[in-house]
Structure formats: C-alpha cells, structure tokens
Specification:
- The complex is a heterodimer of chains A (248) and B (573).
- Chain A is α+β, with helices and mostly antiparallel strands and 248 residues long.
- Chain A contains four helices and eleven strands.
- Chain A has helices at residues 2-5, 13-44, 61-94, 209-220; strands spanning 101-108, 111-116, 129-132, 134-138, 143-149, 154-158, 163-167, 171-177, 183-189, 201-207, 242-243.
- In chain A, the strands form two sheets. Chain A has a six-stranded mixed beta sheet with strand order 3-2-1-5-8-11.
- In chain A, β6 and β7 (163-167) form a beta hairpin.
- In chain A, α2 (13-44) runs antiparallel to α3 (61-94).
- Chain B has helices at residues 27-31, 37-67, 81-117, 125-145, 167-170, 173-203, 216-247, 261-295, 302-315, 331-343, 345-358, 368-391, 393-399, 403-433, 439-465, 484-502, 504-517.
- The chains are: A alpha+beta (248), B mainly alpha (573).
C-alpha cells in the first residue's frame, strides 16, 4: 500500500511496507467490526414508542462474553503485531550487516554534509569526497552511515529507504542501508531544528555502479587535502551510541 | 466572602447547615474573587474557550499557508518560516495545556465533582481560587510571549534542546523563556486543582455514597488528576533546568559541557504520554454519563470500566519512550516500549467495548448531547487503532514525525477536546445556566463540525503514509512531496478546516443566546439519576438547601417494576 504512494529503494523498505499491511489488516478487521456493531446497536435500539430499555447489569455470562472473547482475541492480535514489529526493528536498528562502504552524515542548521570514503574506500582519509546537500550512493552496496549533528537535534530521514534516525549533538550514531533502485530522491530533516527546518533537504542520488564510479573519480580529484581531526573516529556500535565530547 | 465551614459533617453522617452561611455578595467578589467551585469552573471553561479561538486562528493561518504557500493569509498576511514555527508551536501548546486541560479537567472537574458527590463546595476553596489565578497568569504570560521582540517560541510544543535552550539556535530569546515559564505556571495551577479534586471526592461524598456509587466521570477526573500529579514532577524539574540553561548558562542539556539533550526528551515524555490519558479519561467519563442517560441504560459493567481506567493509568507510565524510538535511545529499549505501548490497547479497547455494549437493549434518543457522545466513540476508534501503527517500533522508523502522527493524535485529541467537551457542554448546559440550548442549531453545529473534521485529517493520513513529514512551512523544496495530488490533498484539508470553523459560529451564537434567552429548564431535564440534577438549575452558592443523601449507584435506569425509567441516587428506596 505504501509503495503505491512512494517507491521502495532499500532492502528493508519492503519489510516496513509489509508490516504496515499486516497491521492494517488486523486493526482494520477490528475497526470495521467495532464500528459495524456500534452503528447496528444504535439503529436496532433507537427509541421506539412503548418499547422500554432493558435492565442489563453486564454481569450476565451470555452478555459478558461479548467483552471477554474480543478481549482475549485482541491480546492475541497484539502479540502478533509486537512480534512482527520487533522483527522489523531488530533487522533495521539492532543488526549491522558488514559494510561495503562507510559514509559520514553531518547535520547542522540548515544543511547536510556528506563524506564519501573516496577511491580508497576508507572514511576520514584525504581522498574522501565531501558534498553538501547531495549524497551519491551505489545501488546494491551495503552502506554504514555515521550520523552526527553540529548544533541541535536533527533527523536523517530518507523516505524511499523508509529510514529515519535522529542526529544528536555530541553523539555519533551508526546505521545502515542498502539501496536497491537507482534514481534521485529526497533526504529530509524530520526533527524541527529552527527557522530553516523547512528548507533543510538534500538530494539523494542512487547511482548505477558505472555512474557512481564516474562521480567518485570526478570528485575525488578535487577533494580537500586534510580532514578536520576533531571529528570522532568510527568506533560506534549499532546497539550503543557513543558520547563524544566536543570542543567549544 | 462567606466562609465555608469545611469540617463537613457528611463523613460523620450528621446534619450540616454550613450552607446557610452562604449569602449574596458583591459582583466583584462573586465573579472575580469567588471561591465557589461553579464560578471557578466557568472561569476555567470560558478562558479555555477563548484560548481555543486563538488556537483555532493559528490553525487557520498555518493551514492556509500549507494549502497556498507564500500567499498572504487574510487576517494575518504572509507567513514567514519563523512565524510558521511559532504558530504550530503555540497551536499545540494552547490546545493541550490551555484548552483541553482547563476545560476538561479543571472546568468539568470543578463543576461536576462537588455536585455529583453531593458536597457544597471543594474541600479547599481558596486553594481552588489560587489555582485559577495562577492559570490565568500563565495564559497571560503565554499570550504576551507572542508579541515580544523576535516573537513567540517556535521550537515545537515538545521544546527539544539544544534548539529550545540556546537563543542562537531558536532566535527567540524572550519567547522561549516565556513559553517555559507559562507552561511551568500552568502545571502549578493544575497541581493545586488536582489535590482538590482528589480530596473532595474522597472526603466530601454524600452520606451513603460508596466508592462504587460515584459516577464514572468523577472517577475519571480523579484518576486523571492522580496521573497528572504523579507525572508532572519530572517535567517541572526539567522545565526549570531548561530555563536555567536558557538564562543562567547552565548545561543540563548542553552536550558541549557534559549535558544530555536526550534527557529532556525522557523528562518531557514521561509527563507527555500520561498527559494524553489525563485529558482522555475525563472525556470518556463525560461520554459514559451522556450515553447512559440517553440510552436509558445502566452502564454495562461499571466496575470493569473503573478497572480499565486504573489499568490504563498505570500502563500509561510505561510507554513514554515510544515517542523516542528513533531519537537515539538504546535500540533494545524500543522493544520493551513496543510491548507496553501495544498492550495499552487492551484496557482502552475493553473500555470502548463496554461503552458500545451499553447501547445494547437501550432506548436511544438522539438529542444533541447523545449525538456528540456517539460521535466521540466512532471517531475515537480511528485515533485508537492508528496508534497501533505508531506503537509498533518497526513501522515507527518510517512514520515517526510524519503527518500520519499528526492525523493520529488529532483523531484522539479532537474527539477528546471538542467532541467530548461538546457532549458535556450541551448535556450540562441546562444545569449550568438554567436554560436549554437550541436543538436545531445544536444539530447544525454537530454535523458541521464532525463531517469537516474527517475532511481535515483523513487526507493527512494519506499524506503521512506517503512520507510527508511535519513542521515544514512549504513543500516546494522537496520534489517528492510537491506533486499535484499532494497539494490537492493539502487544499482539501484546509478547505475542510474553513468549513468547520464557519460552523462554530452557530454554536457560539446559540451558546451565548441560550445563556440569557433560552427556554427555562427544570431541575432534571434529561431525567438523570446523578445528584447534580437534584440541585436547582442553576445551583445556588452552596448547591443545595438541604444536602442530598445517596441510596444507590448512578446508573439505575429502566429498573424493572418501576413506573419511571430512572431512579435518582438520592431517592429513598
């Protein structure tokens, strides 16, 4: 259903869309049943001349089961939803498949800065390709991103990847994605970050391997020579964030 | 001011004539300095209704901006990004803290608790007076903050630091601090009100009224007050820490000096999620009263409702981090909070089932209050089921901070703060003012509100499912969110809002006109059981000339073998 509205471009976007579908089916059945029952009762028991209301305490077993049975069924549905949700969560946020490439994503008021590891495929080396408000990634490769913020809380949101992670100042979060579909998409900041929040977007370009190599070579040549030594090193694990104090 | 003798004798069961002390006082003392719970209730309600108009105006301005970006909004002008942030921040703050809380909790709580438990006033009337005065001050501070240099605060009603903590980031050096002071004062006011609700309903009940003879709405308001009082402490502490960060240069939330911005999020949401139930429960209580009266039915399983209220209240303390799944908390924690969040659907669903079952075997009259109560159930179910999507951690990675969230919580808050409140206002209006409201214009207002409400927020579910995220003043910067179909949905939502706002005019006219010119109402126009209907309409200062006694539960409607289909709580067997 969601992919009718917005394309899927990462390996786990399908998981999220299927979780949406599962929840829609389960809660949809309950919702329709509850509303149908509700409106039927309203219609069936509308006031009629000479028909008094019944005296029902709710303790009658044959009536009380109308509460107790749905109650148990909802518990079962809840457990199904919890299991499905946790499975998706664990896959996206708690496991870190080995990376083909590691990039750095830095948020600040109101721009995104990206660092591609460059031809040597190691981040924080002189041949890194640094870009602002434009991220190039290669289709079919597993990426780790190291997410930082320079000032306030931002949030790295890539709708086509179904990926979102807040960026907090003073911490580096590691996450991953694997693009599956070439094209140009939006990156957004999803956490209000001041008056420029509405313009804090970036372009995501998912390239074919050839296009990516061309882009990297063209830009590696003009990469700056040295990297600011202040940036934290790549040591954060997926499960536990590291708190890195920064200078004033 | 007539001093109340509050060593109320009800507990001992002896006759009490403290109410004979109540005599006529001057206008100023009566309306401005009164300790009468009914006057204070009206002050809370009218202040809340006035602020609702301001909050609605803000919604009008930013919805116009979203539908027609960059165009001047009639009555406001061109909306700048800073103003847009200020409008959404203060719309949210006002509607929750200065509309839903004062009207539902303080307004109905103050009005109904003494009347429904058979007391002549609150236990601490002067504390009650102080509560409203502090609340009034907080509203003044908030409204003033919109007009200070650089404008009001624009960091969202959640006020996450460092944005809220540092004027170099939020660019509102005065607005941000004033917003925090206003919120902190508002909390103090509701702490004073809450202690009154709890103590009054425990100690001042009419002779014979046992705990399970108390109407559901009193239970819900008391449990909501307990939730509020137990959850607000951490946030008041956090607000003071944030205020110090803003003004004194401390670093509680400043990561550059050893603070932690995520700590604020925990303190905020530890309060913020129980807060949802603080306003939900009184609305559920109102709906229970209205539905039983207009279905002429005993509440289906009274005790079950009370147990679900308590279970919801307890569980609501263990779900807060579902607002922070992607905020950088330890991802393992998300699993715990997914379990608690999804499980809270059980008591809430059970409560809804009990309400629906109450209709079974009834004789349902579609008077205006009943229409609102039924609409509450129908609409709130949508808000309830969409919460499951967001509580499921895996899906929240995508849905967090999208318009799906906006639509979801408006489908809970609108039924609570508008539909539930309208059920209560139209139901108790004859008691409050001794006159009837116009039935025809009441129905016009009802349909003109409920239908456009769905027109506003169903499009937002679709936009949110397509990934549109919140708090963006203009989507032209994001090609994926600037398609014609998306802009059409935004315009549809805005036009629906305009229609809905237009239909509030008949209500306001009907309300004010009926207050002075409506047909006179008797003591018990709806043939209800609860004690407030045994007082005069409107009840005098002190409520009853002769204090009522209680002989049975509140929902003995259509008892077999009785001529009348109701059985007031105070009637001797």
């Amino acid at each position: 259903m969601i992919n009718d509205l917005i394309v899927r471009a990462s390996t786990f976007s399908g998981d999220i869309d299927r979780l949406f579908l599962l929840i829609t089916v389960i809660v949809g059945v309950w919702f329709v049943a509850a509303e149908a029952m509700f409106f039927w009762l309203i219609f069936r028991f509308r006031a009629k001349d000479g028909v008094p209301a019944q005296y029902v305490t709710g303790k009658e077993p044959h009536l009380k089961q109308w509460i107790n049975i749905p109650h148990t069924l909802i518990l079962i549905c809840d457990i199904i939803i919890i299991i499905a949700a946790v499975r998706v969560w664990v896959r996206i946020k708690q496991t870190l498949p080995p990376a083909d490439r590691t990039i750095r994503v830095v948020a600040q008021q109101w721009a995104w800065t990206f660092a591609d590891p460059g031809p040597d495929n190691r981040i924080d080396t002189p041949d890194d390709v640094r870009t602002t408000d434009e991220l190039h990634v290669e289709v079919g490769k597993t990426y780790h991103f190291l997410l930082e913020s320079k000032d306030v809380v931002h949030s790295f949101f890539v709708p086509v990847f179904r990926l979102k992670q807040d960026a907090d100042p003073g911490r580096t979060y590691t996450g991953w994605f694997k693009p599956t579909k070439t094209g140009t998409y939006d990156i957004l900041c999803a956490e209000i970050c001041g008056i420029g929040h509405g313009v804090m977007g970036a372009k995501l370009v998912v390239d074919s391997p050839q296009a990516y190599r061309q882009w990297q070579q063209a830009h590696a040549a003009e990469a700056p020579a040295a990297v600011n030594g202040e940036t934290p090193t790549d040591g954060a694990s997926a499960a536990v964030s590291t708190l890195v104090p920064r200078g004033q | 001011m007539a001093e109340h003798t509050h060593e109320r004798a009800h507990v001992a069961g002896t006759a009490n004539d403290a109410h004979h002390d109540h005599h006529e006082v001057g206008w100023f003392k009566k309306y401005f300095w009164s300790t009468d719970h009914k006057v204070i209730a009206f002050q809370y309600m009218f202040t809340g209704m006035f602020l609702a108009l301001i909050g609605a105006f803000m919604a009008y301005v930013f919805r116009m901006q979203l539908a027609f970006p960059g165009q001047p909004v009639p009555g406001f002008g061109v909306v700048s990004p800073g103003q847009y942030n200020m409008l959404i921040t203060n719309h949210g703050s006002i509607m929750i803290f200065w509309v839903a809380m004062p009207v539902l909790l303080a307004g109905f709580g103050n009005y109904l608790i003494p009347l429904m438990v058979g007391a002549d006033d609150m236990v601490f009337p002067r504390l009650n007076r102080l509560s409203y005065q502090i609340f009034f001050l907080s509203a003044i501070v908030l409204l003033t903050s919109l007009f200070v240099q650089n404008g009001g605060f624009g960091g969202a009603w959640t006020a996450y630091p460092p944005l809220s903590a540092n004027k170099l980031y939020n660019l509102t050096p005065y607005g941000a601090s004033m917003w925090l002071i206003a919120v902190a004062l508002e909390f103090v006011a509701f702490l004073l009100g809450g202690i009154n609700f709890i103590v009054t309903s425990m100690n001042s009940r009419a002779p014979g009224m046992k705990a399970f003879d108390v109407p559901i709405v009193v239970w819900t308001i008391v449990i909501a007050s307990i939730l509020f009082m137990a959850s607000v402490g951490p946030l008041i502490a956090g607000a003071i820490m944030l205020l110090f960060d803003q003004t004194l240069g401390t670093s509680f939330f400043n990561p550059n000096r050893g603070g932690d911005p995520v700590l604020w999020q925990h303190l905020f949401w530890f309060f913020g999620h129980p807060e949802v139930y603080v306003v939900l429960l009184p609305a559920m209580g109102i709906v229970a009263e209205v539905m039983t009266v207009f279905a002429r039915k005993k509440l289906f399983a009274y005790k079950t409702v009370i147990y679900t209220i308590i279970a919801t209240g307890v569980l609501s303390f263990f779900v807060w981090a579902h607002h922070q799944f992607v905020a950088g908390i330890d991802p393992r924690m998300a699993n715990v909070f997914t379990v608690t969040t999804v499980l809270i659907s059980i008591p809430i669903a059970e409560m809804c089932f009990v309400y629906i079952a109450t209709l079974y075997g009834g004789s349902i009259r579609f008077s205006v209050p009943m229409l609102w109560a039924l609409a509450f159930m129908a609409e709130f179910l949508i808000g309830g089921v969409t919460g499951i999507y967001l509580g499921a951690s895996g899906l929240d990675i995508y849905f967090h901070d999208t318009y799906f969230v906006v639509a979801h919580f408006h489908y809970t808050f609108f039924p609570i703060a508008v539909i539930g409140v309208m059920a209560g206002v139209t139901f108790w209006f004859p008691k409050m003012f001794g006159r009837y409201m116009n039935e025809f214009w009441g129905k016009v207002h009802f349909w003109g509100t409920v239908i456009p409400f769905n027109g506003i927020f169903i499009p937002l579910f679709i936009l949110g499912a397509a990934g549109e995220h919140r708090r963006i003043f203009d989507y032209k910067n994001f090609p994926q969110f600037n398609h014609p179909w998306q802009n059409d949905l935004r315009i549809f939502a805005t036009v629906s809002l305009l229609v809905m706002l237009l239909f509030q005019i008949p209500f306001l006219v009907n309300f004010v006109w009926s207050m002075f010119r409506g047909p006179k109402a008797p003591k018990n126009p709806w043939k209800s059981n609860t004690l407030e209907w045994t007082a005069d309409s409107p009840p005098p200062h002190g409520n009853w000339a002769e204090m009522p006694e209680c002989h049975r539960g509140p929902y003995e409607y259509s008892v077999p073998g009785r001529e009348q289909d109701f059985w007031p709580q105070n009637e001797k067997a």
